[in-house]
Request: fold
Amino acid sequence: MIRLVFALRRKPELSRAEFQDYWLNKHAPLVASFASDLDILRYVQTHTLTDPANAAAQKARGDMEPEYDGVAELWWASEADLTENLQQNEAAQRAGAALLEDEAKFIDLPNSPLWFAYEYPQINPTPEDVIAKPKSNVVRVFFPLRHQNHIEEADARHYWLTHHGPIVRSHGQATGTLCYRQVHRANSPLDTAIQTARGTQVTSYLGHAEAWIDRGSAPRTEEAKTANAAFIEDEHTFIDMNRSTIFFGKEHNVIDKR
Reply:
C-alpha cells in the first residue's frame, strides 16, 4: 500500500479546538462520502494534543520546528492504481476538487506539507489494530524528520532503517512501545500535482517515525531513561532537529477497508 501523509497547520483565525472540530465533524464525512470514487482503503486523522509532553520531547532534542495541529493520512492499494484512477476516473477528479475546496476553509495550505510514503514496520503487533483512541491511555508519537544537509538522502534513509531502527527495537520492552514504524517518503511523481494544487511552500520531510505508547503503563525506570537517551543520541547522527518536529496525538479512524 501507499500512504498520503498531510501534516496540517490551521488557518490563523481558528483555534486548535475549532480547527480539529471542523476537520472531524465537517471534513471527515465529506472524505468518507467520496471513499468509493477515490478507492480509499483507510483514512485516519491524528489530532495533536495540547500537552506539555510535546514541549518536553522537543526540548530534549534541541530547537525544533513548531508542532503541527494534526496529520491526515490516506491509504491506497498501490501507487499505480491511484494514478490510474486519478487520471481516468472523472468521479475521482470531481471528488478531489471538492475535497480541496473544503480544505481551503480551515487548513493553512501553503504551510501544510503533504507527500506520498511507504511504511517499514519495526515493532508491529498482529493484528495491526493499535489505535490511540481519544478515551484510552494510548498516544501516538509523530516525528516528521529531515536529514542533515551534509548527508545524502539515500545514506540517511539507509542509516535510519538499518542502524536507528534496530536501536529503537532493542529498547522496545523497556519503553513500553506497542508499535513503531518508519514511514519513508516515496518520492512519487504524484507529489508535484497535489502540492501544486494546494500551493504548498514547505519542503517535504524525509518521512516520519511513528510510535504508539500506553502512557498509563509506560515504564518510568532507569532502563526507560537509558533507552530514551540512546534514541536521542543516535537521532542526532542523521536528523536535522532544527528542520524536524515531534508531537503526541489521538487518532480518529474514519475509513478502514483493510
